[in-house]
Amino acid sequence: MRASTPGTPAVAPATAGFRLILAAWLMLAAGSHAAAERAPVVAIDWPFAETLIALGVHPAGVADAAAYRDWVGEPVLPAGTVDVGRRGAPHRATLRALAPEAILVTPYRRTPGLERIAPVRERSLHVPGADALETAIGLARELAGEYGREPAFERLRARLEAAIAALRRTAAALDGPIYIAQFMDAAHLRVFGDNGLYGAVLARAGLANAWQGGTNHWGFALVPLGRLNAEAARLVIVEPVPAAAATMMTGSRVWQSLPAVASGGLRRLPPVWAFGGMYAAIRFAEALEPAVARGG
C-alpha cells in the first residue's frame, strides 16, 4: 500500500535551451550562497533533507520542495536549494545539471536510472518491527559522521531527550489515551498507530495511543470520521488541514459529536512530517507537550 502524500506539478520535459539556462542559474546560485556550506548531495526523500539541514548541511537539491514547505515546514529549506521535481519522478536534466556526488533515496522512492547520474545511497526508514524513532536517530548519527557534524548530532539528541522528558512530565498528569490524526480530505483521516514515528514518541513519553486498530507499513490507517468513536478525551490534528476539511469541522454533526471534539479536547499542531527523521520527532514532541497540557 502506498502512503497517501500530496502530489506536485509535473515538470516539463527538458530541452537543450533549458539545460543551458539551468546550468547558468546554478552557477549564480552557487556564487550567491557560497557561505552556506552546501553539500553536493540531492535528497529525494524528505527525511534525508530535514536531517541534513538540521545538522547544518545544506543539500544542493530536494524533491517536491513546495510540498516540503507545506507538509514538513521545518527546518526551512535554505535559499538556493534546487527543486529537482517530484519524489516519484525526479527531473533527470535538473539532477544532471547539479552533478551531485550522491543521491539519497528510500527504496519506496527509488526510480530506474538514478545510478547513471550519481551514486545512489538507499536507506529504508520504515523497517517492519523496528522502532521508528531509533531508526531516525540512527540516520542522523550516520549522516553526522559522514559530514563531520557529530557535535550537531549531540545537540539534536540532547534536545530530543529534553523534549520527551518534558512531554513525559505532562503526560503523567493526564488520564486516558490520545488520538494523533491528519486529514486527507473532508471525510477521511490518517490515524497513527504505534509503529510509526508519532507512536514511538508517544510510547517514550508514556502517552497511551487511542488508536488500537490495524495500521499499514508506514504506521497509519486511513479511516472515515466515524471510526474515531472511542471515548478518547483528546484528539490532536496535525496540519495542514485541507480547505474542505476545515469547512466540515465548522458544521458537521458527525465531527461535533466525536467525544474529543465535544469535550473541548481537540488540539492542532503545525506541520510535522509523520514519516520524517530525528528532527521531526523533536518538533512533534515539542509541539505536543503544550498542546496536551492546555486544559489538562
Automatic annotation (TrEMBL):
Gene3D superfamilies: Nitrogenase molybdenum iron protein domain
Signal peptide: 1-35
One GO-annotated biological process of the protein: iron coordination entity transport
Main location: other
A family per Pfam: Peripla_BP_2
Keyword Chloroplast part of the UniProt annotation: no
InterPro entries noted in UniProt: ABC_transptr_periplasmic_BD, Bact_iron-sidero_bind
Fe/B12 periplasmic-binding domain boundaries: 40-296
Subcellular location field: Cell envelope
Annotated GO CC locations: outer membrane-bounded periplasmic space
Keywords: Ion transport, Iron, Iron transport, Signal, Transport
Keyword Iron recorded: yes
Domain of life of the native organism: Bacteria
Family as reported in the entry's similarity comment: Belongs to the bacterial solute-binding protein 8 family.
Name listed for the protein in its UniProt record: ABC transporter substrate-binding protein
Origin species: Sediminicurvatus halobius
Lineage: Bacteria, Pseudomonadati, Pseudomonadota, Gammaproteobacteria, Chromatiales
